[in-house]
Amino acid sequence: MSKEFYQVEFSTYNSESELDQNDNELLTQAKAAALKAYAPYSTFKVGAAVRLANGKIVVGNNQENAAYPSGLCAERVALFYANSIYPDVAPVAIAITAISDNVPIDEPITPCGACRQVMAEFEKKGGNNLKVIMQGQKGPVLITNSMKMLLPFSFADDILLKYISR
Ligand code: THU
Q1: 147 — phi, psi (to 5°)?
Q2: Would you say the pTM of this structure is higher than 0.90?
Q3: Is residue 75 among the annotated active site residues?
Q4: Sign of the Cα pseudo-torsion (99, 100, 101, 103, in order)
């Protein structure tokens, strides 16, 4: 038996004003997208903005449904949309934020597990690191420079392709 440790590297900024211009802009776009979320059931409005290697920014927000599991998170809406318009362009950064109708969110919003899986796949497909910028409506900003920090031991195509028959 051997024991190993996985190190997670992340940066914390006191507020968006400490970010570089590109990251701040991406977060601003995510916040604007969150305002347009369709979240009548949870009232938890999430926004995501994806910066692509060609400089384009694609945004998305959570889309809920009366049949609850039919809805989709903001991160996946944004990434699937980005990949549908620019299938050959790598995502280089994604900003994630949320607005609550009840209490102002003052802590970073981190992506759910299913979104992490999708983010990890697009990072691998793109061939560069995907930076993840996370904030609430205000307060500290959490940044990781790769999905590897948010999803160790992820499931990926190499394992799948090794074992399925084609
Ligand atoms: N949600 C997201 O959009 N992204 C996440 O990473 C976590 C949760 C959405 C799904 C649902 O519409 C609402 O937030 C409450 O879970």
Answers
A1: -65, -20
A2: yes
A3: yes
A4: negative
pLDDT in tens, 19-59: 999 999 999 999 999 999 999 999 999 999 999 999 999 99
Closest CA to 49 of 18, 88, 92, 10: 92
- DSSP state letters, 128-164: S--EEEE--SSS-EEEESSGGGT-TT---HHHHHHHS
C-alpha 81/C-alpha 61 separation (Å) is 11
| Residues 133 and 143 sit within 8 Å (Cβ to Cβ) | yes
Class of domain 11-164: alpha beta
Residue nearest to atom 1 of ligand 1 (CA): 73
Question: How many A from CA of 166 to the centre of ligand 1?
Answer: 35
Query: How far are the Cα atoms of 54, 55, 136, 137 from residue 15, in angstroms, in the given order?
Result: 27, 24, 10, 10
Distance set, CA 110 to CA 66, 113, 127, 160 (Å): 24, 9, 23, 27
**Cα–Cα distance measured from residue 110 to residue 107, given in angstroms and rounded to the nearest whole number:** 9
Could you say which of 64, 75, 121, 123 is catalytic? 75
27 lines ligand 1 (CB under 6 A): no
Count of CB atoms within 10 A of residue 27's CB?
22
Residues 83 and 122: their CA atoms lie apart, in Å, by 9
